[in-house]
Amino acid sequence: MQNIFVSSEVGTLRRLIIHSPDSGLGKVVPSKAQDWLFEDIVHLQTMRRDEYDYYLKILLYFLDKEKVQGKLKEIDADTSRDFYKPEKEKYFKSDKVIEFESLLADILHMPEVRTELTAAVCAIEECSFQFQKELAKLSVIDLAKVLITGTMPSNKMLFPPIPNLIFTRDIGIVVNDHLLLNKPAKYARTRESLLAKYIFFNHPVFANLRGKIIEITEDENHFLLAEEEQEGRLNTLEGGDVMMVAPNHLLIGVSERTTVEAARQAIDLLFAKKVVSKITIIKIPQKRDYMHIDTIFTQIKCNVWVLLGSLGRVQEEAEKQQTWEQLGQKPGYETLIIKQFINKPDGVKIKDFANLEDLLGSVTRDDLNCYDEIKFIYSGNNQFPYGAREQWTDSCNLLALKAGVAIGYDRNDHTAQAFRNAGFKTINAIELLEKFESNELSPETLRDTIIMLPSAELSRARGGSHCMSLPILRDNAI
Ligand SMILES: NC(=[NH2+])NCCC[C@H](N)C(=O)O
């Protein structure tokens, strides 16, 4: 049975990996917030109870209904939140909405993996030998927690937390029946990818992936470079920059996090294995606002995309501006460079796209064979200055649960209006769950709806629901 397969962004979602905010997130301090890629410190309880738990309940309703249907009153009344804690009996334990921490605990039951992984984590975190011995005494459940949170059951912090693990999108991407592992650009995300690597290579759930995991490495000449030359030249690639838009077509962003060398290596490896026949590189400005391509656009259904207008159709404007630039005026816009590589029997052909809309339109028509009128929804309804404001809080980072039904943040009011103008309904996550429970609505019958997740705390971590998901199984979109 095919249990790992993703060939689009909008086919009905069947299985995914998530990670609920752990106690490490509550240990982010102001002096480390930026280093740990947070814009602020977050209130953990609010983030869990009033925000992320709703995300989970919605996912369960869509992917594994019997875990929640008719039980929400009871679940919500339990102040201990045992339903959400993998070590508790009442835990929802789903093989569709899969918690990273449970996968980690499972592989730590294998003695060899436990020894290797503990040693590897201690090595990268420069743990003392003494602490490494203490880790050996922990139960599997406690060890999994320490490897994620960095803190021992005694409350001693052995190494820093990995608060960005809630953004499971970035650890790897399923490309048809293969998996492209990340190689993080930021030190704060190194331990996440180490843990992920051990899970994908060892967990029985991923047995079908053996021989199909693609890893990005350094070119051997890299090791011979002097340190100052090496700087900034590592091959790095993060999942938020990789988007599987159609069975034949993968998008890769070259960004603050993903280097052109890594993108090139991914193209060579994926073409050699014939996993896809078309890969488009989208080079976006290297800035914090747009760390990955999924922060500037995502797909809602075959003919609908949400994107940041200031990076859309700018090319024509840019060409007109050229004269003024030649006369010395500074460019007042940002441009994208879009190059498409097509693997043909007689060699790789390259095609240019002038702007994002042209590329996304071509995905809709040429790759998904969808001829419905293409709709672009712009962040902030393309009204100054809401486009930029709402993009910052992930207005362009939505997760499609099925074609036309996606989950995003509730705080992006102008973008929500743009969705309504385009014929979508918007509904608050809490209200939707009530309507599911009362059978007024159901995941199966919902159409063209954007689910609005409470997000005051979540958005401070600088990622949206697209980032908080690693889909491993979707139905085909076509
Ligand atoms: N796929 C994404 N856009 N992920 C967002 C990750 C956010 C996280 N704080 C970081 O900076 O790494």
UniProtKB/TrEMBL annotation:
Under Gene Ontology molecular function, one entry of this record is: arginine deiminase activity
Under the heading SUPFAM superfamilies, the entry gives: Pentein (SSF55909)
Q: Which organism is it from?
A: Emticicia agri
The family database entries (PANTHER family) matched by this protein are listed as: ARGININE DEIMINASE
Ordered alphabetically, the record's keywords are:
Hydrolase, Transferase
The record's top EC class is: hydrolase
Q: Which Gene Ontology terms describe the biological processes this protein takes part in?
A: L-arginine deiminase pathway
Q: Does the keyword field hold Transferase?
A: yes
- InterPro entries of this UniProt entry? Arg_deiminase
Coiled-coil residue spans: none
User: According to its UniProt record, which protein family does this protein belong to?
Assistant: Belongs to the arginine deiminase family.
Write down what this protein is called. Answer: arginine deiminase
Q: In which pathway does it act?
A: Amino-acid degradation; L-arginine degradation via ADI pathway; carbamoyl phosphate from L-arginine: step 1/2
Q: Which reaction does it catalyse?
A: L-arginine + H2O = L-citrulline + NH4(+)
Q: What is its EC number?
A: 3.5.3.6
